[in-house]
């Protein structure tokens, strides 16, 4: 089969590689019908995730058709149309039993495209298939479902839920890229009074408007802190969500939030950020971090099926499955191309 293979920082290629096979009785082999590229993949290519080794097949998001299952698989059958989650869950360890699948110590967690070969390929092996895939409801398209492999659960769980967004809150989201837009969709489920999107790119702020934000702030020419203070009568945001993964964005969130407020970090950070405890120690600020657990995926699937969330609107570019090199180029130049999410389909 063909797959997108990592060869160290800055190097990747679309290569011929061996087909995946069943290795454990809880595995499934899935034909990839649709896949996408994540911002985390870009962090890997920058060298921010050194645990990803040479010749790893990248990718952790897919919708596909089951072509083979191990003898221990009970809930997934050959021919099933499924969502492959970015998080793999053994279902037995202490963290899985608490619903913290991202912290699985039984062989799961974020392993696809990280510690084992991933989904940017024609076929993928999915460990613990019963716990790590979701059957797709009738009427939910591949593209709609694909956005639930990672990005929407991440924005919802690590952004809106970790940030404890409540009705009438003012929510500031730093970064209006795909993950920021997903956080907007997640936050708006809780009817905040204002959602503010902050970014350097005017194109992404225009996209944020289409996703229903109330205020946009272009930080290349506006002072985000001053704008938030003006909007909140000098208090600051109830919740600030970091959706970029750079030190400046995290540090900005700590300045945007009111006393007693919450900072929810989503971004994947490759460099240290400064935590200004000399300014924060007496302000009762809660800071959360997290890797998505995907416990919300069934709920989000029901919302998509009921047309309560339009997940496919995140998609801006479409390619054939064999066009990963072109898709990466478009995704990497999002400032020029306007790319949010790219989809590659058979």
Short description:
By secondary structure, the chain is of the alpha/beta class.
Write the layout of secondary structure elements.
Elements: E1 2-6, E2 12-16, E3 28-36, H1 39-46, E4 62-69, E5 81-84, H2 94-97, E6 123-126, H3 129-132, E7 133-135, H4 142-146, H5 151-161, E8 170-174, H6 178-188, E9 194-199, H7 202-210, E10 215-218, H8 224-231, E11 237-242, H9 247-256, E12 257-265, H10 277-280, E13 286-288, H11 297-305, E14 315-320, H12 324-332, H13 334-337, E15 341-345
Parallel strand pairs: 8-9, 8-11, 9-10, 11-12, 12-13, 14-15
Antiparallel strand pairs: 1-2, 3-4, 3-6, 3-15, 4-5, 5-7
Helix pairs in contact: 5-6
What does this protein structure show overall?
- By secondary structure, the chain is an alpha/beta fold.
- Helix content is 28%, strand content 24%.
- The chain is built from 13 helices and 15 strands.
- Strand 9, helix 7 and strand 10 form a beta-alpha-beta unit.
- Helix 5 crosses helix 6.
N-to-C CA distance: 13 Å
Which H/E pattern describes the elements? EEEHEEHEHEHHEHEHEHEHEHEHEHHE
The biggest beta sheet reads: 7 strands, mixed
Fraction in beta strands: 15-25%
Note the total helix count: 13
Helix content: 25-40%
Mean pLDDT: 96
- The total beta strand count reads 15
Structural class: alpha/beta
